[in-house]
Amino acid sequence: MKKIFLILILLISAFMPSFSIEEKNVIRVGISNSSFSVFEHSSAEIYFFGNANILDMNSGKNIELDANNTIYTEYKNGLFKISKDDEIILDDVQGPITITSNNKIGLKGIKRKNDPACYRGMIELRGTKPDKFNIINILDMQSYLKGVVPNEMPISFGLEALKAQAVAARNYANRPNGYYANYDVCDSVACQVYYGQNSETLISNKAVDETKGIYALYNNEIILALYSSTASGISENYFDTFGKGIEDKPYLRSVADSEKLRRMDEEEFLKTSPSSFDMKSPRYRWQKEFERSYLEDILSKTLYEQSNAGFVFPKFSKEDKLSNLEDIKVLKRGASNKALEIEIKTSDKNYIVKGELAIRRIFKDKGQILSSSNFIVEKISKKEFEKENDDVIFSSDENDKKESRGIRFFKHLPYAFKFYGAGFGHGVGLSQYGAGFLSSFKYSTKELRPFS
């Protein structure tokens, strides 16, 4: 069991080096708004549970405040103004501004899990544009991880799985990252989900404490410890998933929970629910149907978006309109059966889409991309579709009208497309549901190692 469960990117003490790792003792986290869509702010309302100190690092001006106070910060023309109870306490200062307290610091108007956002450590305000600034939480690594682990993995998965998640998150936070100018990582899914102090739990804090200083290494270097929700029983090769313009990671290789899964053809693998460590996931196996004309409308938008990103061939322009969709074929699959290259076939033109994420994004419906690119597609007749959908979202009357007018409806075209899929996420590295499954059987983090 422990040898074949290689989906997990876990770390055990046997892989710790005899030399010291250059660990970040302090990490800088960019804080976004409640929807995680904006990292630049024009104002902020900050409150304190303890005594606070506000310092303009440029001028040296310093303000001390008692506990249970709130300040309002504005930023215009490259200058900060800070007020309390309608009284200006700092005006026309360049910053950056640092805010420290002997207790947690809250940000009014920013929600995390329906609660006000509260943070350990220090808050820094640093200008980015003449009227925009970043809010940066500066804190020690262990405290940061305590705000990450329970938000990246359900605590119900158990201590050993949470310890695996803590190691993966620690690895991610310690890898070099020069993408952001003012901080090391962001607080959204673009990096790792970080909700701060209010999201901490006893069991996830314990997982962080018990793995302190532990890393996953390859050739004595901290690895990129990727993870996703559900690997569907077989993990994917890193290079096949992220290979465009990147260097391969030899420690991120596809691993199956059993050889039986490897021997299955695509249809058997995706249309059944074979036993694996991921099988408790609600996205272990899934189905999704698109009525053809509805999918044509989606693809007309998403093919243009992904064409601009360089993943669609030939190029799909903004003026193009996809119609008469005949078929969706998988041309290339990865080791886990994930589609890495597909063909969108119409009656007059075909398009090739390359890349796991691009493929998921072209089937984006109501803002949600496809759960996984691990799928097969079947063409469905109008009769089959209506039989499967008693409460059909797409009115058959409307399509009858289209047929009578000769609009986008041809007898040889399918009425709908049905996806049979598996997994949730990119499927490389740690399978979180797999970790939770084995943790429930009392496997320890040491036993769930990723190396044979």
Can you characterise this structure?
The chain is an alpha+beta fold. 22% of the residues lie in helices and 29% in strands. It has 12 helices and 24 strands. A 7-stranded mixed beta sheet has the order 4-3-8-11-12-1-13. Strands 7-6-5-2-9-10 form a 6-stranded antiparallel beta sheet, with no helix packed on it. A 4-stranded antiparallel beta sheet has the order 18-21-20-19, with helices on one face. Strand 19 and strand 20 form a beta hairpin. Helix 3 packs across helix 4. The chain is globular. It starts with 25 loop residues before the first strand and ends in a 12-residue tail after the last helix.
Alpha carbon gyration radius: 25 Å
Overall pLDDT? 88
**Would you report the number of β strands?**
24
Oligomer: single chain
Total count of helical runs of at least 4 residues: 12
* Order of strands, widest sheet: 4-3-8-11-12-1-13
Q: Sheet with the most strands? A: 7 strands, mixed
